[in-house]
Design goal:
The structure is a homodimer.
Chain A lengths: L4 E7 L2 E8 L2 E5 L1 E4 L11 H6 L5 E3 L1 H6 L3 H6 L3 H5 L5 E3 L3 H7 L1 E6 L2 E5 L6 E4 L1 H11 L3 E3 L10 H21 L7 E6 L5 H12 L5 E4 L8 H11 L9 E3 L5 H9 L4 E4 L1 H7 L2 E4 L2 E4 L25 H9 L3 H28 L2 H12 L2
Parallel strand pairs in A: 4-14, 5-6, 6-10, 10-11, 11-12, 12-13, 13-14
Antiparallel strand pairs in A: 1-2, 2-3, 7-8, 8-9, 15-16
Helix pairs in contact in A: 6-7, 7-8, 10-13, 10-14, 11-13, 12-13, 13-14
């Protein structure tokens, strides 16, 4: 029953479910912290377990370059390599490739680029993305797609044509979902008709799950909401829906209200490295001098280990550039998002998601 | 019964004891990791507890400059500030001052210097070192001393004269050991007669414990051993003896064989930041390409969390400059030294320290 998606409850368009994987069940909605280079930055896997993290994402682009997907395969796969026994999702490499690498050539079959690490020439295409993700061995693997600037219609049209062609090639290179499930990605920028066209094509392949790509890449929050409103009804109810790269606390609310089941984002660990922390009253920065003598925890409504420390101590660690600051702030920020999504899941089950959302947003965006 | 020192067993000159403090018992011999800026770099206090760390050291010089000892006092003291409930020892500030700060003037009453952080003018003397250490609130506080180059006789003579004068002033400024015990420091460089003279003076003050300072500062290992052989019999048997700044695994053996009870050193966390790890077969560097595919743990004889990861994974973290490398390697190195000292304590109780030492050194120094 791997990759069976069990719907437990719904509340409006929002749903609570369970996604079964070879490495355990994922209660949905779920927020996945990102472990780019086979590590969620600064956080040992045991602490992720203690926070009830149920899914992590790792990056194909980074791992193919360093330490190399074949090495990870030879060492038993990503779960074994990084000692994380829960579910893992890998992206296709496409997104990082377009944002980090120097692209030499995009053609209808794939992308030739130079590594951002050493400048060496590389190529990714549907077959190699599948082979690399098979070597890594994540539970959920993503189709190789092209993520264009969202408001350039001609560019978006070219990108969805390629994305669809590449999806077919990915399915051919990965025909069997028994151990790893292939998810397809709907593109279409901010254009409703292109989103419709992409959703129709991608869902015609009857995949284990569907992602909405090409959002949270520079469009407005209203545009993102409009695209979700338009696209979600075009995805089958009985498959998980994944909104890629989204993790702002208010965006998680908007996504879940519209029926999104899976999210991932680097934001909790990236903010931590910039001394920022989520609170129910909005984001704060521990570098601020006003926390110098503040004996309260970052957010007294959370219950993780970082909450044992005062803002004054955390500020000291930040100012003194101490490594422990990364650990404690990352732990806090991950817990904030994971708890927030878990609270929404419970609210869906209790039939009061709209209330939770209203109260949360009123306080968070005040 | 605070600061009572209970001798449990002895084996040759080596002893196993228990030092009672207001924050718990310290089984001795003990190795104290260093938390320079009120944090043992990269390691949360809960993980230190799990490793059976029984004492940590923190630095007066660093904390007086940042975040300031009065702030720490106002926030409840160092234990409360850094959420470490076990025993803490603070140094006097002298050693860092001579190694890090730009000294403006040393006179017979104290030292005027410029902060290495912002160049501001500061002064430390016996009374201010005591006041700062009282503000920090460590269990064991150290007398303000001058640590000279060990082989310049004229300089060492001047330094011990000051160290003795300053010790008397420290005792006057800290007359009561009820909550914090003042330890004195024997200086004397590599000169046996000066060590004798210093030991005689320092022990005449009947303090709760005695440190041997001015070693591990550039002299040879043979010179260090000779100074220990000469000085230890001149310290009273019923007080703990602290060899400052020593932490190499073989130096711990030599110190314990000669009756040292307390050690501290930055080496486990500093080595970790340079990708180096202790093993029973000597020190290794995880950056080395030969560990690329090595599935074994750093040292299979240890039992800490870092031991769950392969050398291949640790090498990947090091090469990718991932924060988790600092955590796992620091955890490993601290456990190595703490376990090593705990094994020696057990060997003293079992009457087989010499065997343990011989086997350990043969393997470690091979």
């Amino acid at each position: 029953m791997s990759f069976e998606f069990e719907l437990v409850a719904s509340d409006g368009k929002a749903r609570a479910g369970i996604l079964h994987t070879p490495h355990g069940q994922i209660p949905t909605p779920v927020f996945a912290p990102v472990g780019t280079a086979a590590t969620v930055k600064a956080i040992p896997p045991k602490d992720l377990e203690a926070l009830d993290v149920n899914l992590i994402l790792s990056n194909t682009y980074h791992l193919m370059l360093r330490p190399g997907d074949e090495l990870i395969r030879d060492l038993g796969g990503l779960h074994e390599f990084m000692r994380w026994s829960g579910p893992i999702l890998t992206d296709s490499g496409g997104f990082q490739l377009f944002s980090l690498a120097q692209i030499s050539k995009i053609d209808d079959d794939g992308v030739t680029f130079r590594s951002h690490l050493d400048g060496s020439a590389k190529r990714l295409d549907p077959a190699s993305s599948m082979r690399i993700q098979q070597n890594l061995g994540a539970d959920i693997i993503m189709a190789f797609d092209q993520c264009p600037a969202p408001d350039d219609r001609a560019e978006v049209e070219r990108a969805i044509a390629r994305t669809h062609r590449w999806l077919v090639a990915c399915r051919e290179a990965h025909p069997d979902d028994t151990r790893q499930a292939l998810f397809g990605i709907v593109q279409g920028g901010v254009f409703p008709d292109l989103r419709s066209q992409s959703a129709a094509f991608v869902t015609s392949l009857d995949l284990k799950g569907y992602a909405i790509g090409g959002l949270a890449v520079g469009e407005t929050k209203a545009e993102m909401a409009a695209m979700l409103d338009h696209t979600m009804p075009r995805l089958p109810n009985d498959r998980p829906r994944y909104l890629m790269g989204v993790g702002e606390p208010d965006d998680l609310v908007e996504g879940i209200l519209r029926g999104v089941d899976i999210f991932d984002c680097v934001i909790p660990t990236r903010l931590a490295r910039h001394a920022a922390a989520f609170t129910h009253q909005g984001r704060i920065n521990l570098r601020n001098a006003k926390y110098r003598t503040d004996e309260s925890p970052i957010d007294c409504r959370l219950n993780n280990y970082a909450g044992q420390f005062s803002r004054a101590y955390l500020r000291h660690l930040v100012i003194a550039k101490e490594l422990l600051a990364h650990y404690l702030l990352s732990l806090h920020n991950i817990d904030f998002l994971v708890s927030h999504v878990a609270n929404m899941r419970q609210a869906i089950i209790d039939g009061c998601l709209r209330d939770y959302a209203k109260k949360f947003l009123a306080e968070y965006l005040q």
